[in-house]
Amino acid sequence: DAGVTQSPTHLIKTRGQQVTLRCSPKSGHDTVSWYQQALGQGPQFIFQYYEEEERQRGNFPDRFSGHQFPNYSSELNVNALLLGDSALYLCASSLGRELDQPQHFGDGTRLSIL
Amino acid sequence: ILNVEQSPQSLHVQEGDSTNFTCSFPSSNFYALHWYRWETAKSPEALFVMTLNGDEKKKGRISATLNTKEGYSYLYIKGSQPEDSATYLCAFHSGYSTLTFGKGTMLLVSP
Question: Cα(B57)–Cα(A39) distance, rounded to whole angstroms?
Fold first, then answer.
């Protein structure tokens, strides 16, 4: 039973570039959420995708966008990268949109901006 | 902006000690409270999702209680083992919001 998988594991970019991170949810899950964890902070919610649409969004600028595919996998895109975007990006999947279900997390993508 | 506070920030105990951490959250519009364990170089693992005031949940040596009226949850570990070393995160959901995480409590258990 495959868990949540994220790629790549690590990524180094420079300011102004664009990046795409990928996530495959746990088998049987249909909802994907993305989180950003900066150093010393807890994970911060970016957005949630369900039925290929963004359903909820946290306090992140439009530079952060996403997509969900028919197979429930998801991408997170960040444009015009800033130094402050350096963080661990976590993907979590669940069955259904409701947040009274546990989130199943991937190992994350470590993004470093130079 | 919802405020979720966890204390202590870090904790160092000896093997066999019992320990507990606190998660404080807004007492209004409560919907769910999550606890996760995050070991180094691994992904966060769900421990409990609690939805009812007075709820108590248990998983092996780990248990949690919930008080939604006063806005806090306790996580207890009985007889800590080195493999319990991890960061323990709580996350609050109000029903109108997304999951808001605390900064976590980092636990180190020495043999």
Answer: 30
Q: Give the nearest chain B residue to A36 (CA atoms).
A: B101
Which candidate, A57, A12, A67, places its Cα nearest to that of A36?
Answer: A57
Residue with tokens 């069955």: A95
Comparing CB atoms, the residue among A99, A103, A107 nearest residue B46 is A103
Residue B83 is given by DSSP the state: G
Summarised one tens digit per residue, pLDDT across range B35-92 is: 999 999 899 999 999 999 999 999 999 999 999 999 999 999 999 999 999 999 999 9
| pLDDT tens profile A53-106 | 999 899 999 999 999 999 999 999 999 999 999 999 999 999 988 888 899 999
User: Cβ(A75)–Cβ(A22) under 8 Å?
Assistant: yes
Cα–Cα dist A40/B81, whole Å: 25
Predicted pLDDT of residue A1: 61
**pLDDT at residue B95, as a whole number:** 74
Backbone angles phi, psi at B82, to 5 degrees: -55, -35
User: 3-state SS of chain A?
Assistant: CCCCEEECCEEEECCCCCEEEEEECCCCCCEEEEEEECCCCCCEEEEEEECCEEEEECCCCCCEEEEECCCCCEEEEECCCCHHHCEEEEEEEECCCCCCCCCEECCCEEEEEC
Judging contacts by C-beta atoms under 8 Å, the chain A residues touching residue B101 are: 35, 42-44
